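DM between two lab members

TW: hey, do you still have the CDP-alcohol phosphatidyltransferase entry open?
JB: yeah, one sec
JB: this one, 247 aa:
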Amino acid sequence: MALNNPYNTTLVRNETAAGAAAQLLLLVLLGTAIDLGPVGWLTGLAFAVATWAVLTRALSRSWLVSFGAANRVTLARATLVGGVTALVADSFESPPPVTVLVALTAVALLLDAVDGQVARRTGTSSSLGARFDMEVDAVLILVLSVYVATSLGPWVLLIGTMRYAFVAAARVLPWLNGQLPPSTARKTVAALQGVLLLIVGADVLPYALAFGAALLALTLLSWSFARDIRWLWRTRDSRAEVTAGAR
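TW: and the structure you got?
JB:
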């Protein structure tokens, strides 16, 4: 017997396809305006395909009734991040257009403050939307850290890879998978990562100040992760008891 499910597969495919088309359009514009090289093109195309595939699969498993305005904002951010990714990849072959890179990144960071507000005001908050937003943020920070590392050194990559290292560690240490309580400090530190890396990447600071800004970003992020890991460790037993009781 078929279930009466409001999930619209065609609608979801149209939304993700529109996102992929927007990504291709942005790449064409970048290619026309700044003569994007083959590495940038291939990286941008790979980003578009990966985003489309992962998002389509996630949506098909979430059974959302509609894509939602907030997810559209996040998808627009993902498109901009794809452009930034292409520019950073291309920068290994030729000097990047810093103004364009900064503009795309700045808009992506500004939109990061929009999608959450849209979700709350429209009552369309979802675990998928929150995860989508978080993953877009993580990719942007990783890409920016790669770009900044070319001038300040490979240690900056710790900023971009810290979250992925945490996720990998959680596969080995299940207690790291616990649900963290809401934290303004965590959100503030996360937002500062993009801002500080953008300032450093804009190449407007002397080397010493740029180094200090990147080091500050790494220090704050390390503190935030250490704080959350400590909380997860201290509450692991009580969370295990609650889980066992629920079973």
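TW: got it. The chain has two domains: 1-125, 137-241. The chain has nine helices and no strands.
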